[in-house]
Amino acid sequence: MLYKKNAETKLSRELFENPTSEYRGTPFWSWNCLVTKELIADQLEIFRRMGFGGAHLHPRTGLETPYLSDEFMELVKYADEQAREKGMLCWLYDEDRYPSGAAGGMVTENWNYRARHLLLTREKKQGMCADREEFLSCIAAGGKPAGYYLCAYRVKTEKGYLHSYHRVSGPQPDFDSKAAEQREGKLWFAYVELMRESPWFNDQTYIDVMNRKAVERFLEITHERYYEVLGEEFGKSIPAIFTDEPQIKGSMVLPDGESEADVTLSFTDDLPETFEKAYGADLLEVLPELLWELPEGRVSVHRYHYHDHLSERFVSAYCDTIADWCNAHHIAMTGHYMSEPTLYSQTLRLGEAMRCYRRQQLPGVDILCSDPEYSTVKQAVSVARQNGREGVLSELYGVTHWDFDFKGHKLQGDWQAALGVTIRCHHLAFMSMEGEAKRDWPASINYQSPWWEKYPYIENYFARVNTALTRGKARVRTAVVHPIESYWMSYGPQAQTKLMREQLDDNFRSLIEWMLFGLVDFDFLSEALLPEQCPEGRFTVETDKEGAALLAGEMAYGTVLVPGMRTIRSTTLERLEALADAGGRVIFLGKVPALVDAVVSDRAAKLAERSVVLPFQQYELMEALEEERELDIRKENGDRTDNLFYQLREDNGCRWLFVCHVGRKNNRLDQPEVLQVRIRGSVQVTCYHAMDGSVQALEAEYLDGWTQLQVTLFSQDSFLWRLTEKQGDGAAEPEKKQENSIADPAGRQDGTMVSSGDSFPVKTGSLRPFYGLVAGNGAASGKQETITAVIREPETVMPAEPNVLLLDRAAWRLDEGAWQPEEDILRLDNSIRSILGYPHRQDAYTQPWRIREAPEKNQVSLRVEIWSEMDTGELKLAMERPEKAVIRWNGTLCDAKTDGWYVDSFIHTVPVPGLVKGKNELLLSIPFGRKTNLENMYLLGDFGVRLQGTRAVVTEKEKKLYFGDITRQGLAFYGGNITYAMHFTLEREQETILRVPHFAAPVLEARVDGRSVGLIALAPHTLRAGKLSAGRHLLEICAFGNRFNTFGTLHNCNEEYKWYGPDSYRTRGSEWSEAWCVRPAGILSRVEILEGRPDWKGEEK
């Protein structure tokens, strides 16, 4: 059990103020180098100071320590010991990189376990075995076959629809005449083809995830190895093991019904046998129906059964096998599956996402690129609720790049918390930035990011939210039958089915958004899981207050929606009929299913006659769901909000209500929304301020069975309320606040914020006004604020690090060959690899631990030109592995002895002589082999940098810096922190508020007269500085940096590009810019000094 403290009848104030490790985030810790105990100890301490509760030990690109070796396992054991000493948790990861299953290629060294698919082609394939028996014999003899011949088909079409077909048995037939094909049908050959070897799988392949023996071999190599070394800590300091992106080799579709293009189908060797056992049909006899549409609108039950069976084979072989092993070994299976969000993506890679979670102890998801995948989370959370799981994990913040700010961290975490995510697995924390590792889907949520010490501001907040939202049980009365199986029916040729499939996906997405943004929570029902969750003889239950409800595991739903489905299972209908008979509500949205179990039937239509039938439209749906509503939030003009999510939980006689913003809006940051919050029932409301751990009773009004409050929200605000049954006429008494403040691992970051990310009620009706941190100081209202000073330029601006000139281009030569023209260093690295016959460095790249050590036989020379407008003193050159290089600076041989590091401990600094005015030359000679990394270098010093097209010139540093983009003020590549110092004068004593309207920084920290007064990260960009005396005051604001302009995709000029991995640094054509595409940084405009409300009482929070 992860959340043992939740067994207490009430959330304690101590736990809410100071959440323990299980409630805290646990990042992907990227083991991507030669791992050492020193690195482990140092970085776990950094994680503790960042507010994390542990880390996932995740081997990734760059790992040099042999995976699962004795050395590797000793390091894992040491990491667990260090985590335990710090009161943290050690989360395991089951693969070398991802997707899970191949154990770094060790499983698929056995060719029987390699991924495969069925290839249907008009061409005879060479290198194929004659049949499966010959294929197996070839493998047993050490051969490397490409696959084997399965059968052939005669396929006849009319106007793109399947007219007739039959299987051709026996050996491969020969091609015949066109006349014969016109008479008998076109000849198609079916082969079982093995996946090709890939450097991503360390020159092996992915696993056959539908082969249970292959999965058992994966368990033997990986899980049993961890259990052997760490089994005593399973379920204690080691709560779970993460499986990442397992997937089926997806089935494709034909472009159109007359196409002769090759097409592949998901397959495993014994699929025909298990298909026949399940459905009584020979899959190979009916295979063309999987690809071609039947005429006259007829549907293929075999296509439906095929997709259903694929999903079942995958889930039973992979998901269930691993979950059962984990259950027997007292450790939770967590992690996520590939391509969960859409009906299309699930069909392609999983069959059905929800089925995958049926035995998983801690279901998980991933959210990359900050995409709003509400469906992904909803599916996993629904099964977790129904199966009584205590939490859901999300791998979040991935692929957001170096300049993703604290607003993004809060917003992305908030909406997922509202939907039910309890474990935040941050993607990701680099152990090292050496070589390709620095391009492994940044940013690094670790010490390389200059803001790392301020991260408890985010992490403490979510930990506190978790202490409440992991308690009790979600209150949800509405369910939606998941429409994935109807999508399978339409999975045919693009020309004939694409629009239909797109409509199904659009409806799927729309329905989710209508309900979530409309503040009516729901769960999905998986038709495959429902018979087990709702067994025979116990379909419905009569609740005390809400009436009849459909049982689904530990949940009960009084209303069930059937959303425009083509087919529905008879087992689902049976349960919906029982619900309708008991007085519950069934709502058919859009078309009533005309098929039952993919066969024409009027059974659903008969149920619809005694149910609610609505058009597939938002208004009709939301009107019909009003009686299910628990929460209503409206704007001042009466409109319902359109950018909030919520979660409501029942917990030992109370309820928890969490409400948050969902995404960035383009509204003004300084303009709040005044909203009316209505909660069904008469309840007393206590606000649990998750930003600082304080607790406060709120006043409310009661009208017509609803509790009403008015709140003021800024665009990243959220609130957490505890609701208890109203006693008498009075409001709840405030819970007494403990005197001690939270023990913050990195110093107190909050408690003095004007906008803390929480929200606070303002005066409503006859209620006594409540002046909280946002609304209660005059800075929030816009109408009552008083600006007492405006600072339009700072007096001094002080970078915290030396300035940097990025050196990412060089002329080059190999050995004693001719010098080649200047080129991007990553490009020239691959040019050299092409000459020497080495694989290119790119996204798919063999791990260093799998590459045998070999002498670096060649020498690469790099010549870098540096232009300067002045002479300088001694500088530092930052580079990787300088000890291997011969360095000459303007012809002078330099000592490569290092004296420190820059940004990452693997990027070392070497003293070099100063620049001379004009052209300077840096010449390096580097031994080169397959494992060599040629990387950018960084010149550090006290100078300025001006970008002139494709040339970066060293200049005198700016005598004075101003508010505005620092990249235009001599700091083009600078990524560190920068402090702005200025004075302001107050005419009288006042409650003082700072406001910084515009900045391009993850977070700001302000100091007044040498005293830290807090952070500015969220709207409205204000911060309470406290009561200040009349006179002159020193204000210092540190704008924390990010590493985009130093380590980002600076030559990728595609503004719509979002998959920022290794290949995004190597774009070509119109996506490549010779000039650097830097992004704005720093405080961009004025700083304002505001006077707070004179009647604000600091002790109120």
From TrEMBL:
Bias class Basic and acidic residues marks the residues at 727-739
Q: Which InterPro entries match?
A: Ulvan_degrading_GH
Task: Report residue spans for region: Disordered.
Answer: 727-759
List the coiled-coil residues: none
- What is this protein called in UniProt? Glycoside hydrolase
What taxonomic ancestry is recorded? Answer: Bacteria, Bacillati, Bacillota, Clostridia, Lachnospirales
